[in-house]
Design goal:
The protein is α+β, with helices and mostly antiparallel strands. The protein has three helices and eleven strands; from the N terminus they run H-H-E-E-E-E-E-E-E-E-E-E-E-H. The chain is 35% helix and 38% strand.
């Protein structure tokens, strides 16, 4: 009977402690949002100096056309503008490791306006044309997962663990051709570019954008003590 009583007391103490930890972990939305907004404000204010606006991305190649008329479209020297238009929507969420003090944070972000510029080369048979393509990416939203060391509120560090694009709206494109081409060929190039780039921007944001962010955040320390 004594053993049973001690077990009940011990379990009750453990449960209370667990609930207290869960409440404290889940009651930090305001501070957590403050952390996310502080990081975003830093990114917005230093986007150009940090090499995030424009954000340079690697090139890639895809095919275009159909049947007897097929070719290759290669994009190089890509630049994305508008990183400073990033914003948080909804509350950030977190789970806290009580032992390490590290916070696993998830947040939903969007971009008000992204534009891009990329060199391109289109070739089919023995013919080719090249030039510059410019366009806009509307309504790009993503989930960002980060790890933050929050043990010392005056010296908080953040690292991006993963980026997952959840939605890409309309993508526009216009091309300046170096060589005159027929309207049919230009239409094929534009169609291929639009289809390709809408998928390509996902990998750009999930891989290269994430890597660039981490390079920037590696030297950042945030003071949230006030």
């Amino acid at each position: 009977m004594k053993t049973s009583h001690n077990f009940v007391v011990t379990a009750a103490v453990f449960l209370c402690g667990f609930l207290d930890y869960r409440v404290s972990a889940n009651s930090t939305n305001i501070n957590l949002n403050n952390l996310v907004d502080t990081v975003l404000e830093d990114i917005q204010g230093n986007a150009e100096a940090d090499g995030l606006d424009p954000f340079c991305f690697n090139g890639s190649t895809t095919s275009f056309g159909a049947g007897l008329f097929t070719g290759l479209l290669t994009l190089t020297n890509g630049e994305m503008y508008g990183a400073e238009t990033v914003f948080r929507y909804g509350n950030a969420e977190q789970t806290v490791d009580a032992d390490t003090g590290r916070s696993n944070i998830s947040m939903a972000l969007g971009f008000k306006n992204l534009t891009y510029k990329t060199d391109y080369r289109a070739s089919w048979g023995v013919l080719s044309t090249s030039g510059v393509a410019r366009g806009q990416v509307r309504d790009l939203y993503l989930d960002l997962y980060a790890l933050a060391d929050v043990k010392n509120s005056s010296d908080v560090t953040v690292r991006v663990a993963a980026v997952k694009v959840t939605s890409v709206g309309d993508v526009t494109a216009a091309v300046d051709t170096g060589n005159p081409v027929s309207t049919a060929v230009e239409d094929e190039i534009l169609a291929a570019m639009l289809t390709f780039f809408k998928g390509y921007v996902v990998s750009v944001m999930e891989d290269e954008f994430k890597s660039t962010l981490n390079n920037i955040l590696a030297s950042r320390h945030f003071d949230l003590s006030d």
